[in-house]
Structure formats: C-alpha cells, structure tokens
Write a structure and sequence with these properties.
The complex is a heterodimer of chains A (440) and B (282).
Chain A lengths: L1 H6 L6 H15 L2 H9 L8 H7 L8 H11 L4 E4 L3 E4 L1 H14 L1 H21 L2 H18 L1 H17 L3 H13 L6 H17 L3 H12 L5 H17 L3 H18 L2 H17 L3 H18 L2 H18 L2 H18 L2 H17 L3 H17 L3 H17 L3 H18 L4 H15 L1
Antiparallel strand pairs in A: 1-2
Helix pairs in contact in A: 2-3, 4-5, 6-7, 7-8, 8-9, 8-10, 9-10, 10-11, 11-12, 11-13, 12-13, 13-14, 13-15, 14-15, 15-16, 15-17, 16-17, 17-18, 18-19, 19-20, 19-21, 20-21, 21-22, 22-23
Chain B lengths: L16 H12 L6 E5 L6 H15 L2 E6 L8 H13 L4 H7 L23 H9 L11 H22 L2 E6 L6 H16 L6 E7 L7 H4 L3 E5 L6 H10 L6 H11 L3 H17 L2
Parallel strand pairs in B: 1-4, 1-5, 2-3, 3-4
Classes of the chains: A mainly alpha (440), B alpha/beta (282).
Chain lengths: 440, 282
C-alpha cells in the first residue's frame, strides 16, 4: 500500500489515479482474471456466457469462466445490470477502453468482432420483442470490427425507428454511434450528424435541429445526403413561414435527385413544394407540384403518399371553390385509407368533406360527414379532433337556426378546451355566449 | 449461471449525511419540497447516496421505485414509462388500461374489436388483456390526445395510491442517458405537477451528471438542487475499512484518503479490492 501511495503523485488527475490502481489490481490478479478485466470492458455488460464466448469457449461456459465472473463481481466497480448480467462503473469502463484502443487497437477490433458475433447469435435466437436490443448491441460492436457493415445496420435501424417515431430508440442509437465515433468514416460521421438533427426535429426542437442542419450544410456532403438535408431544411423553413428559403432548399433537393435519377426521393419534395405554394396562395402552382408528386407515388405504388397528396389536392380545389374536384380527391384519399385500414386518417378528410357540403349548401350531407368524422374521433379518444368537428357542426346548426343544438355542442367544445388548455378557448367561449343569447 | 443479485450492502456505505438528512426531512414532511435533483460527475458516490435513500425508504416502509436510464429505451414513454413505474410500485394498471382501450386489439366477449367497455375497467384479467392488446408501435400513442389521456390516467393512479398510503418515492438514475421524449414525459407528468403542489404524496429524486432540463432559478423554491457531492473525509475511509473487514490505523486512513482524493469510488477500489488482492497474493 505504501508503495502504491508513493507512485501516486499530487499532480495526477482522479482518472490517472484510477489507472495506477487498476494496473496494480490487474498485476496482482491471476492472468486470466486480469485478461477478463480488460475484455469485459468491451461489451456494455457481461455475464458468464459472454465471458466464455470472449474467451473462445463458445456459448457453454466452463467452470473457469464461472470462477472468473465470481472474481470480477467482487470488484467494487462492478454492479448489476438489470437481469442481463453485470457492468463496470462507466468511468472505469471508459478508461479501460481508451487505454486498450491506444495500446492495441487491432486486438480491440478483433475482440469487438467476436462480441458482434455473440450478439448476432443472441439476436437470431431472441423473441421479436427482444431482438432489436440484441441487434443494437451487435451494431455497436460491428462499428469497430467492420465499420461498413456496422453503419449499414445503424442506418437501417435508425430509418426504421424514425419511420415509427421511436424517438427514444433513435436517441439510443445515436448515443451508441457516438461512442464509436472514432471508428466512423468521414461520410458516416456526417450521416450521424444528420441523424442528430432529424431526431431534434422529430422531437419538436426546431431551433436545435436548424442549428445542426445549417452546420452540416456547410460541410462537403455526398449527393444523397445533400439532397435529403436540403429537403429537411426546406421543410424546417416552411414551418417557420420562410417560404423563399423553403423553396430554395426544395429546388436544390429536386435538382440533386434529378441528377441522381432518384425519382422516388422527388415525390415528397414535390408534395412539400405544393404545400408551400398553397400557403403562399399560388394555387395553380401548388396543383402543378401535387400532380407531379402524385404521378411518382402512383408509378412506385406508394399508397400512403398518394392518400396524403389526394387530400392536399382536395384542400386546394376546395380553396378554389371547385367543390366537385375537391370531393373527388377527398374520396380518393378516403378509399386508400379504407383499403389500408387507416381509420384515424379518415377523420380529417370526413371533416373536410363536411366543410365542402356545407359550402355547397347541402347541409344534411355535411352533417352526415361531420358525424362520421366525430364518430371516429370519439372512438379513438381524440378529444381535440372531436372538439374541432363539434365546433363545425355547431356553426352549421347556427346557420340552420337550431340554436339549442348548437349551444349544447359548443358547451362540450368549451369543456374540452378548458380541460386540454386549447388556445381557441376564448374564441369558443365568446361564440357560445353569442349563441346563448340567440337561443333565448 | 451466476445471477446479478449483488449490491453493496448498505452497512458498507458511509457519509453523505447532509444530503441524507435532507431526504429524510422530505420523507417526514412531504408537504414541503418534494423534489430533489442531484448532479455530480462520475465516481462521486451518486449511486451510493441513492442506495442510502432507498434503504431509508425500506426502513420506513415507504414504497419506492427506481428507473435507471442507462442502456434502457422507453419509446412512447406516456405508456411504457408509466407502466414501468406502476409495475415497480405494484400500482393498479386499471386507469392506464382504461385510457388505452381505444388502441387495444382486445375485444370483450361477444364485442367488436376496439369497442369500449362501459364503465370502469376493474377486472385484473381484462386489464392485462387490454394492455397486451396495445401495440407499442401504434402511431396513435404519440398523438397529443392519447398522451393527455395517459398522463391523466397516470396522475389519477398516483393520487389514488398516495391517498391510501400517504407517500411514494420515485428515483430516476443516470439522467444523462435520458432521451428527449423520456425527459419530456418526466417533466410534464411528474416534475411540473409535483412542483405545482399537485400529485400529493409523491416525492421525486433524480440523479445524474446533470439536472433535468430546467431553469434552476425557477425551481429553487420547489426543489432541492444539489450541485456536486462533497468528497469524503479521512474518518470515512477509516470507517469504511472497518466495515469491509480491512481495519486501518488513523495514519493509514489519512494516507489512503490523500491517495484517493476523498473519492468514494477510488476508496472502494483501494480499500477493498486492492487490500483483498494483497491479502491473497502478498
């Protein structure tokens, strides 16, 4: 002990002190235990099976692997890791990993490959609900052992998580990728950055997303990333109401996709450009872009994309007063929702149809559509959506001079507004008061 | 296979008297501040402090749960994290099941899929079936209206329980690993309501390298904001050596304390692990 305290000098950082002490423990441990202390830092957690695998014993642990695990669990910086096994204190693990990478990177890569193989086997044998967790660990180790394959796995998993809005999974994947950033190629580091921005955007943190995207835009980007980023930047500026910049980025994205011959990638950008021109009141131009988008969705058979663009076309024709065409497009959107079983997606379109028929003076039909929208929204518990439709019905009842019915509905709207803190609360209260006076 | 059941025995833990005193006060008088946020760098003893606090809860018969964000993923936290907390506290899941009914594929006997059950859901079997019938990837789980329903259901569950048992404590560990949507859930569903003196009887403690994403000046009135944990003193080293079976003289404890800079993690490694290896292989 005295010898040790003499080797630790006052100018050493806590981490350096820890390094000296760990060296001392490993020097005193039996050789295979000392080796295990090092290699158990590679996975996020370890157990008897993982120790056996990393020692080259396969999946059946020997008695010695059990003894090694027992020795490791005596260490004060080893603690339980859920039901999976054991893990090092993160500072100890970080230190062991860093020193190993610095001293023998090839051996580290080799062992990471072995860890990736272990998690691949576990993923194959796992039930659906658990497979993703094992796959994430596999990806983490592959990023070191075989960066290309590891990043492909990262890209696929991140894409899937983004599609399903598994935001915590996205966060976790980015963290895992971040831990291995030193092993990523320059191009993959840029994609990883893009993922960070995308997650911030999907989490509603627009400012942070814009900062990341703008920073990335200044880099020398590969064409596919440049196109994707331009589309996302366009969408962010569109949300901010900066139409000029939105169009600028969308056009840039389109030009790159055209050059790359990526037709499918152009469809959402064309749809977004339609939305910008619709917001700007340039309806003819909006229609032109929606139709170009629709042609591609149809060509590639993307029904979800088609239903969105049909609905948008319905809105623009409705704004133009061309009710027949608006109805036609809404019905086409509905037909797809029905086909794919997207009941919730039908509710706003039914509501829009109600608005069209009201404008046409076909009040009974309008009520019929409003009620279909309301039924779905009530069924899925979408209170805010239900309040919107009830509000529209109340306005119609007011036009029909059915004031008592209108009051009853608006009372329910105000009740929901109050409960959810809806920004339209004051407006709805005033309208309710006015209707009550009329009802008298 | 050896199962991960080890944890440091509470009797080995030393110090953090001030923070522990504060916590005991919170548990004794939950009408005052019911939030504590602890931020400190790694190796400063956060986990030990939490273990001491949980030990106090056990001694006092106060129910507590612990959510560790390290390596764990809770997508759609309004459902998954609420479920986890209720599970750990053994709280009834009936309000959550009620809120999730519209998204469940469970159909009551003779009914159609996604049909509401009239009145409150109270049957434990039905509750389980409803929850099992919810697809965690259902995009409706992230709709605002569904989040609000689940938030209300979780609040009612906690209030129901607190009304009967008076107190429950939720520990959230490794806050630096929390995702944005998990943190949004934590803030909206627990921290703000407790700060606004709602959710009576609920105490929340967070640990990590950072506090939750808050403006500290806004929260000073309603939360204990603990920034860094104090280093241990030489007397703690001596006490620890005694507790783990490696007694030290005052001089040795002093030397050891200086070597470890008063750091609790280093203390454990030096006093226990190193002494043990020295004993086996002198």
């Amino acid at each position: 002990m005295t010898e040790l305290t003499e080797r630790i000098t006052p100018d050493m950082s806590e981490e350096e002190v820890l390094g000296v002490i760990l060296d001392e423990i490993m020097a005193r441990a039996e050789p295979d235990v000392a080796e295990a202390i090092r290699f158990c830092a590679v996975p996020h957690w370890f157990n008897e099976e993982i120790i056996a695998w990393l020692r080259g014993e396969g999946l059946k642990p020997s008695q010695r692997s059990g003894e090694i695990l027992a020795a490791l669990t005596e260490l004060t910086f080893v603690g339980p890791y859920y039901e999976r096994g054991w893990a090092y204190h993160e500072n100890v693990r970080d230190l062991l990993l860093r020193r190993w990478r610095e001293r023998d990177d090839e051996a580290f890569k080799e062992l990471s490959g072995r860890a990736a193989d272990y998690f691949e086997q576990r993923a194959e044998a796992a039930a659906d609900a658990e497979r993703d967790e094992w796959e994430r660990e596999r990806m983490y180790h592959l990023l070191v052992a075989d960066e290309g394959q590891g990043f492909e796995l990262f890209h696929n998993m991140f894409g899937k998580a983004t599609r399903f809005y598994w935001l915590s999974t996205c966060d976790h994947l980015l963290r895992l990728g971040g831990e291995q950033q030193d092993y990523l190629t320059q191009e993959h580091q840029l994609w990883w950055q893009f993922g960070r921005g995308k997650l911030r955007r999907d989490s509603g943190e627009w400012k942070e997303a814009l900062e990341i995207f703008e920073g990335l835009w200044k880099e020398d980007l590969p064409s596919d990333l440049e196109s994707t980023l331009a589309n996302d930047l366009g969408s962010l500026y569109q949300d901010k109401g900066d139409w000029e910049r939105a169009v600028e980025y969308y056009e840039r994205s389109l030009a790159i996709d055209e050059k790359l011959g990526d037709e499918h990638g152009m469809a959402p950008t064309l749809n977004n450009l339609g939305l910008v021109y619709q917001d700007k009141g340039e309806r003819e131009r909006a229609i032109e872009y929606y139709e170009r988008s629709l042609a591609i969705w149809e060509k590639v058979g993307d029904e979800h994309g088609m239903s969105i663009t049909f609905n948008n076309l319905g809105l623009v024709y409705q704004a133009k007063g061309d009710w027949e065409r608006a109805v036609e497009y809404y019905e086409r959107s509905l037909a797809i929702c029905e086909k794919v079983g997207d009941e919730h997606g039908m509710a706003p379109t039914f509501n829009n149809l109600g608005l069209v028929y009201k404008a046409k003076g076909e009040w009974e039909r309008a009520i019929e559509y409003y009620e279909r929208s309301l039924t779905i929204r009530e069924k899925v518990g979408d209170e805010v959506g239900a309040a919107t439709t009830m509000y529209n019905i109340a306005l119609l009842y007011e036009d029909m001079e059915k004031y008592d019915e209108a009051v009853a509905l608006l009372e329910r709207v105000v009740e929901i507004d109050e409960r959810v803190g809806h920004p339209g609360l004051e407006r709805d209260r005033k309208r309710l008061e006015r209707l009550r006076r009329k009802a008298k | 296979m050896l199962q991960p059941t080890k944890s440091v025995p509470r009797e080995e833990l030393v110090d953090f008297e001030d923070q522990l005193k504060l916590f005991k006060q919170m548990v004794a008088e939950p009408t005052e501040k019911r939030l504590m946020f602890v931020q400190a760098p790694g190796m400063c003893g956060k986990t030990s402090l939490m273990r001491l606090m949980r030990g106090h809860c056990e001694d006092k018969g106060v129910l507590c749960c612990r959510v560790d964000f390290r390596g764990q993923v809770y997508d759609s936290p309004h459902f998954t994290l609420a479920h986890e907390v209720c599970d750990q506290l053994r709280l009834s899941l009936r309000h959550l099941a009620q809120a999730l009914q519209p998204l469940s594929s469970y159909r009551p006997e003779g009914g159609e899929a996604k049909t509401h059950i009239e009145g409150d859901v109270t049957d434990a079997w039905v509750i389980t079936q409803i929850l099992r019938g919810v697809n965690p990837t259902d995009e409706n789980l992230r709709q605002r209206f569904m989040k609000d329903r689940l938030k209300r259901a979780f609040a009612v569950t906690l209030e129901d329980f607190a009304a009967k048992k008076e107190l429950l404590v939720c520990f959230f560990d490794q806050l630096e690993d929390i995702s944005s949507e998990e943190e949004e859930w934590l803030l909206e569903t627990l921290l703000r309501p407790v700060a606004e003196r709602r959710l009576r009887g609920v105490v929340v403690i967070t640990f990590g390298r950072r506090w939750p994403k808050i403006e500290p000046w806004e929260w000073e009135e309603c939360a204990y904001l603990i920034d860094k944990l104090p280093p241990l003193e030489a007397k703690h080293f001596k006490e620890y050596g005694h507790r783990v079976g490696y007694p030290m003289s005052d001089e040795e404890a002093e030397r050891c304390w200086r070597t470890c800079r008063g750091n609790p993690t280093l203390m454990g490694v030096v006093v226990k692990n190193l002494r043990a290896t020295m004993e086996v292989r002198p």
